[in-house]
Write a structure and sequence with these properties.
287 residues, alpha+beta, two-stranded antiparallel ribbon, 6 strands, 48% helix, 15% strand, elongated, binds zinc ion
């Protein structure tokens, strides 16, 4: 999802002065006296700063371009009159000193960016929670997501404004589908781990046809947890180009590989008994 820019706050003037000062110092880097210049040349970017909790959330370095602030660049407040080359934001800071990093972190601009980022994260998490709620309750998510966010805003939850990607966009089908894919991966991980740990696995494959008359394979898996309890779990629904046995085998192989299902522990196959399915069973065992 794309994020918008946050507005400038008060004190930006002070920020600009601080940053102008740092910019001037960065430019002066090439004019400083002999011994100091040698010290700067020798120092360079310290990779240890990337692990320092003070700098880790925002700092990155581009070889020959200097150090930048991820947060200030993402939540960039438009530079006002005359300042368009702020170090860490528009231009890299070439003075590789930790006190310059501290100085940047203390600027009003950076503090505002940190706040804007925290609000954005909160909004993204809120958006995911709303979508998760809809899917868990099996409500039609594409049609109800916008309404649910609207209700949340009506009840005083203002942070969705921070998404700032427009009502027509942040509830668009494409974004909802992307979010669902992410949610699916997170929810699926522990289930797949349980399936992998099962001593025996059974597959249930059904061929269906969707509204546009495309053939689809609906794959479920049966497995046992460490307490001996049996579960039946939906694994995937994939569109296949035709109903031939080798097409179906290929599709199932792809699913099993993608989901890391240990094929050597698949002992059973449940189908409606169609010839292509029972034939597939034979081929699968051979493979
Ligand atoms: Zn910053």
């Amino acid at each position: 999802m794309r994020v918008g820019q946050s507005r400038g706050g008060e004190g930006a003037g002070q920020d600009r002065r601080e940053e102008q000062g740092a910019a001037a110092a960065a430019v002066r880097g090439s004019e400083v006296g002999g011994s100091e210049r040698a010290r700067h040349r020798k120092s360079g970017f310290d990779p240890g700063w990337m692990e320092d909790p003070r700098f880790k959330p925002w700092l990155y370095n581009i070889a020959n371009h200097g150090m930048f602030c991820r947060l200030c660049r993402q939540h960039k407040q438009a530079p006002k009159r005359g300042v368009s080359t702020r170090p860490f934001i528009e231009v890299g800071c070439m003075l590789f000193r930790s006190d310059y990093l501290d100085k940047h972190a203390a600027t009003r601009h950076h503090q505002e960016s940190v706040k804007a980022h925290a609000a954005l994260i909160q909004a993204v998490i809120g958006g995911f929670k709303c979508l998760y709620h809809l899917t868990k309750k099996e409500h039609a998510h594409h049609t109800n997501y916008a309404d649910l966010l609207e209700l949340a805003e009506l009840l005083g939850c203002q942070y969705f404004e921070k998404l700032k990607i427009g009502r027509t966009n942040y509830t668009s089908h494409r974004i909802i589908d992307e979010m669902l894919e992410i949610l699916g991966t997170v929810v699926e991980e522990p289930i797949l781990a349980n399936i992998s740990a099962s001593v025996a696995i059974g597959l249930e494959v059904d061929e269906t046809t969707d509204v546009s008359v495309k053939k689809q394979l609906d794959v479920h898996v049966r497995y046992m947890d460490k307490n001996g309890l049996l579960y039946s779990q939906f694994l995937d629904l994939v569109t296949v180009s035709d109903g031939r046995a080798d097409t179906i085998v290929k599709a199932i192989r792809t699913i099993l590989t993608k989901k890391n299902i240990p094929t050597q522990r698949i002992y059973g196959l449940g189908t409606d008994g169609a010839a292509v399915m029972t034939g597939m069973n034979y081929q699968q065992k051979q493979g």
